[in-house]
Amino acid sequence: MDQTDVIFQLILHGGNARSLAMEAIAQAKSKDLQGAQDALNRAGEELSLAHQNQTALIQKEVSGEKTEISMLLIHAQDHLMNAMTIKDLATEFVELYGHIHAGKEAGV
User: Fold this and answer.
1) Which end of the chain is more exposed for a tag (fewer CB within 10 A), N or C?
2) Structural domain contains residue 108
3) Structural domain includes residue 47
4) Which pTM value belongs to this model?
5) Which residues make up the binding site for Mg(2+) (predicted)?
6) How many domains does the chain divide into?
7) 51: annotated active-site residue
8) What is the pLDDT of residues 24-68, one digit of tens each?
9) Cβ contact 81:19 at 8 Å
């Protein structure tokens, strides 16, 4: 796979992870905590795939093959880092919504 393909894989999997994390928040908000957890798990899988592609780029550079820094690569890295942050926040939101819903059901 050439560098451009790897970069597009970063964008693809990062975008998928971000969408799944946002889906998890929406599901938790509507009391579907199992669906939210499933979406978070799938987001984690997408981040893992993105990370594998990022690692491939890093390994090439470490072995002496220069990585061309392009706007596309910067965009891909930005996509990935945002996805990671949003997934972390979504995990907290899902937990928080779980507590809120449990409190409402208990009459708190």
Assistant:
1) C
2) no
3) yes
4) 0.91
5) 78
6) 1
7) no
8) 999 999 999 999 999 999 999 999 999 999 999 999 889 998 888
9) no
